[in-house]
Design goal:
By secondary structure, this protein is an alpha+beta fold. Helix content is 20%, strand content 22%. A five-stranded antiparallel sheet has the order 1-2-3-5-4, with helices on one face. The longest helix is centred in the middle third of the chain and has 16 residues. The protein is globular, with a radius of gyration of 14 Å. Bound molecules: adenosine monophosphate. The site of adenosine monophosphate has 13 residues, from loops.
Amino acid sequence: MDCIFCKIANGEIPSNKVYEDETVLAFHDITPQAPVHVLVIPKQHISSMADITAENSAVVAHISEVIASLAKELGLENGFRVITNSGEDGAQSVKHLHFHVLGGKKLTEKMA
Ligand code: AMP
């Protein structure tokens, strides 16, 4: 499958990693939209939040734990935002589930 985040997960394409374990990878976004902009992905290919089921949701719970821990490591004690874009109307450009973690400044209240 021609999926850029699968290639990042299996090391075919390099990334600026901040965290990795058996099922999850986190790396800096190539086009940061805040002083801290990290992407957290499951290593297994799941296209988007629309494809989460009882069978694969454990990795999403794990990603939540990883994000909480990473936020501390990245100095985001004052707060941060987590976004996952899904599908056409959600403006998802990479069709592999990913969570944007944004912070390092006071973000605007506008979300859409
Ligand atoms: P989305 O629009 O929610 O699908 O977000 C995709 C994100 O992936 C964007 O913020 C891109 O800047 C980011 N991105 C695309 N290619 C790479 C890459 N090779 N390394 C890191 N981030 C990437």
